[in-house]
Amino acid sequence: MQWDILATILLTATIQSLFGVGVLLFGTPILLVLGYDFITALTILLPISLTINLLQVSKDYRHVQAPFYRQVLTLSIPCVVLCLLLVTTLKLNIGSIVGLFLIVAALKSVYAPFNRLIESLVRYERTYFIVMGIVHGLTNLGGSLLTAIIHSTPYDKDQTRATTAVSYGTFALFQLVTLGVSLGPSAIATSATALYMAVGVSMFLATELLLYNKMSTERYRTTFAAFLFLSGTALIFKSLFLR
């Protein structure tokens, strides 16, 4: 067990327990900065992310918005799989662009031009879902685009988290299957992985009890907007300064 990995999991699992994303979105750049390669980061983080999402969906599956999820399955997932297979040969730095988009999405409720911009982008849903799958397959940052489009909907907090969780969990499931086929099951199923998953589950249970259940929908949406803003800022910082 690596203590730097454990600390990363404690932080990112708490975030994902609240919003449905976080382990991959923040855990990937953190582990890269700590010196781990992209594939190693994936094999560590994907089982944790999927486990937390499964717990969230099992609790709130009635709140999943089926039309949204169908577009994830049909448009995003094929792109995730294809781009993950190419990830070792293609290196694209699009973090700053995604980061700016997240900041705009976070501020849309307080600045009318930003609100009109988000509405115009989300209007092209098919293209958006395809781009989201490509970004996630290549960089593991598709969760940022997922949270941005979810934030543009009128969903309440349970609908928001459940729909985010089932979509993000499906990303992780297909990524794990792809890695299992290309690298072999032994690259993913390790004793350390089981321990890290247990830590992630513990953080989910604690966060559910102490934070999520006490949040109103209004407070959740405000906190979610702050999460988007911080995510965007972190992505821009990583892209500009952490090569």
UniProtKB/TrEMBL annotation:
TM segment ranges: 30-55, 67-88, 94-114, 126-150, 162-181, 193-212, 224-242
Keyword set, alphabetical order: Membrane, Transmembrane, Transmembrane helix
Protein name: Uncharacterized protein
Lineage, highest ranks first: Bacteria, Pseudomonadati, Nitrospirota, Nitrospiria, Nitrospirales
